[in-house]
From TrEMBL:
Keywords: Methyltransferase, S-adenosyl-L-methionine, Transferase. GO terms for cellular component: cytosol. Residues 6-162 form the tRNA/rRNA methyltransferase SpoU type domain. It comes from Treponema peruense. This is RNA methyltransferase.
């Protein structure tokens, strides 16, 4: 994902403070390109900066256009944020995470590759009108309660921007869990260790192995954690055998 190729487009925004809050939400998620369909002279810059806090520079650099078509003409695609499917959407509205995956593919990772992706947000009171939705090439929707489905403009921008940021932010995923194939080695170590100390004389190994596989897969172990568990059971089995009388150990081997 190249966040420098994400373009946030606000169509006909009315409240200057909302624009400032949008700028702050964009900056929170590493997105800096803002385009506005409307007249710059109708916006109270001071009120924008009050809500933008330290992200006012995003508004200061914003470009203004007469239409969504003009604002998105250099983009590969333009996604309308809407609950309306529109006549040209084919009944498909992406969820934010689905849209982020698509944008990840389109924008690429280097400045020399990929293309720009626009996300278009409508007026605070009316949202995007049907003709504005139809100026876009796809739709993205943020699920919300039927009781009160309308989201604040800056909140909507924050949600979409966050999904894009998370798709881009691979360094913050924490760790890579071991695969099921790798997990089976850990389960095998546990099973072998328990067998060595005679645990399966009363409990079936197959059921126990399935138990550990199910529990440990939910835990999403790291490689280091898997190795630690293996060493723990290996050592426990070794200690148990070393303390077991020789005749009992011979009996266990015969069994």
């Amino acid at each position: 994902m190249n966040l420098d190729k994400i373009v946030i487009v606000l169509s006909r925004p009315e409240e200057s403070r909302n624009i400032g809050a949008v700028c702050r939400g964009m900056a929170n998620n590493g997105i800096h390109t803002l385009r506005i369909v409307g007249d710059r002279n109708s916006i109270d810059v001071e009120r924008v900066h009050i809500l933008a806090i330290h992200a006012g520079y995003i508004f200061d650099r914003a470009e203004f256009f007469d239409s969504i078509t003009e604002a998105t003409k250099d983009c590969v695609c333009a996604a309308a944020t809407t609950r309306r499917k529109g006549k040209k959407r084919g009944g498909k509205l992406f969820l934010p995470e689905e849209f982020a995956s698509m944008a990840d593919t389109v924008t690429g990772t280097k400045a020399s590759e990929g293309g720009k992706v626009a996300v278009v947000f409508g007026n605070e009171r009316t949202g995007l009108e049907d003709d504005e939705v139809n100026e876009c090439t796809m739709g993205v929707t943020i699920p919300s309660s039927d009781e009160f489905g309308s989201l604040n403009l800056s909140h909507a921008v924050q949600i979409i921007s966050y999904e894009l940021f998370r798709k881009n932010d691979t360094k913050r995923t924490g760790y890579t869990p071991v695969s099921l194939e790798r997990l089976d080695k850990t389960v095998g170590t546990i099973s072998d260790s328990l067998r060595k100390i005679g645990f399966f004389s009363r409990t079936g190994s197959e059921a126990m192995e399935q138990f550990w596989r199910t529990v440990l897969s939910r835990a999403s172990l790291t490689e280091g954690e898997a190795q630690y568990i293996e060493k723990t059971f290996d050592k426990a089995a070794g200690l148990a055998q070393s303390q077991c009388p020789k005749d009992e150990r011979r009996l266990e081997i015969q069994l």
